[in-house]
Amino acid sequence: MNKLLTYVACLLLACMLSSRACAQKFEAENSALTGGASKVNCSSCSGGVAVAQGEGNLSFNVTLPSEGFYNLYLVAASPNGEKTNIIAINGTSADFLLTQNPQYSRHKVVSSFKLPAGAHTIAIRKSWGWINIDYLELEKVEAAERFNLNQTLVTPNPTPEAAALYDFLLDNYGEKIISGVMTLNSMDEVTWLKEQTGKEPALLGLDFMHSGRGYNWYNNKEPIHDARSWYNRNGIPALMWHWRDPSRTTEEFYVRNSSRPNGTVFDISKVSDPNSAEYRAMLNDIDYVAGLLNELQDQNVPVVWRPLHEAAGGWFWWGAKGAAPLKTLWQLMYDRMVNHHGLRNLIWVWTREPGDDAWYPGDNYVDIVGRDIYKDGDHSSHAIEFNNLNALYGGKKMIALSEVGSFPDADNLVKDGAAWSWYMPWYGKHTRESQFNPVSLWQKMFSHDYVITLDEMPPLRTYTRRGPTGLRPNLPGKSVLEAYPTSVANNLFLSSERQLGAVAVYNMLGQVIKEEQCLGTSAVISFAGLAPGIYLVRVREQDAVKVVKE
């Protein structure tokens, strides 16, 4: 019996020290195989058998004893070249990529996905197919390890308004999602949404696409006029730039190819040659837009600034020559706007594309990471994509749905713990047509406790941070706080579905005798040294529990 107890104790200690020691493994050969996936002998594989996916699919039935956040790994090989396939967890799906490798190795394909206790279906579906899979592994991770957000902007000495807006975004991250919409003409989609729902989104997407091109039908300052008026209503102005051909040879931002014979051939690679005409053309355009943004700074208006979007897609000229010139251009723009023109009112947003690690300008140049997702009629949480992005950037950057065709249903966001900062559907059909976003879903979103609309926005100019992690409202359907034991000798254990934030211990006279800032969803509060008696432990200034000190 003593040997058994010693073994159990060692196993528990191993689990505490290494989450992988407690990981659950599911052999591929025991999954349901369809569409031509087949078992193959593999002497180096677990159990001596693997599955050749071919053109088929695998489906694993997984039962979990407790709710938690899980990393998902595949031990797999890709002998036939680089392959992209699909992983789906209870119907929520995302792509994953394996580079060519004939050897079986461990690949993290999903990070920190929230799963309740009970039965789940995890599928590997064909996109390109033709990988070989040994087994699937689930590794439980601590919720507190998910986020380590940058608390300040990358711009030194930002304007008070920019800092306040960033604080607002931090305070609501993971607790609410900010509603948004993109516009084509001044306030067009906002007006339509007001007519359909009685409410307006909190974030307004604007574009410098037509500014500075000499169009006699367009007011160059329309975007900054709209940004100022929106901010004056406590809304968030989000500006982007479909940057037309800097050489003025065309009016295009798309590159020339067989499907776009009139596209631009502007050469971004000349960004490394300050003596080139292309470099001077790019600098002139940057200076022009910086002048517009500076007018907003003079009027104390901060901007969520998302330039050079979707670069790695290659369809815009700024992404046509690969990662190196794009990074150079981003850093040139940052330096020119921040250090030369003195712009301190910008929150810099990088738009992620799959597999664009080499394109990322760097943590010192990016405040927030956006992702543009167009999956028609898909109102899932995109939680796999969110968690993988969060892990990719080390939990340091807030992640947003900077463009969507169809936005997530708030119920799915809450259920899956997908903490997108905001969502912004594109204008026109993506906003107005039911196959993308039906009016009934707009109405549901705008009335949902998890969604922030314009009428719910605080005064942004004077916004004050509610704490290092925010003192945030309850999530719908979430338990608030668990504390144990309530009769304490030394330590009180706190656990919550969301970040704890500020924790204060009061005596029965209402005096604060202990305060701590807890960055995770669980914490240990020491009562050692406190006199016996009754205490009140308050979390986020909203949730409290009575504790007896023995």
- Share of β-strand residues: 25-35%
Give unreliable regions as ranges: 1-21, 469-479
Global Rg? 26 Å
Number of strands: 28
Largest sheet: 8 strands, parallel, barrel
Q: Any key phrases for this structure?
A:
Immunoglobulin-like; Jelly Rolls; 550 residues; six-stranded antiparallel sheet; eight-stranded parallel beta barrel
Care to describe what's here?
- With 550 residues, the chain is of the alpha/beta class.
- The protein has three domains: 22-145, Jelly Rolls (Sandwich); 160-462, TIM Barrel; 482-549, Immunoglobulin-like (Sandwich).
- Helix content is 22%, strand content 31%.
- The chain has helices spanning 2-17, 160-172, 188-197, 222-232, 277-298, 323-340, 383-392, 410-416, 429-432, 439-447; strands at 24-27, 32-34, 38-41, 49-52, 57-64, 68-78, 83-89, 92-98, 101-115, 118-125, 132-141, 177-182, 203-207, 236-240, 303-306, 346-352, 368-373, 398-404, 422-425, 451-452, 482-484, 487-488, 491-495, 501-506, 512-518, 522-526, 533-539, 543-549.
- The chain has an eight-stranded parallel beta barrel with strand order 12-13-14-15-16-17-18-19.
- Helix 3 (188-197) links the parallel strand 12 and strand 13.
- It is globular, with a radius of gyration of 26 Å.
- Residues 1-21 and 469-479 have low confidence and may be disordered.
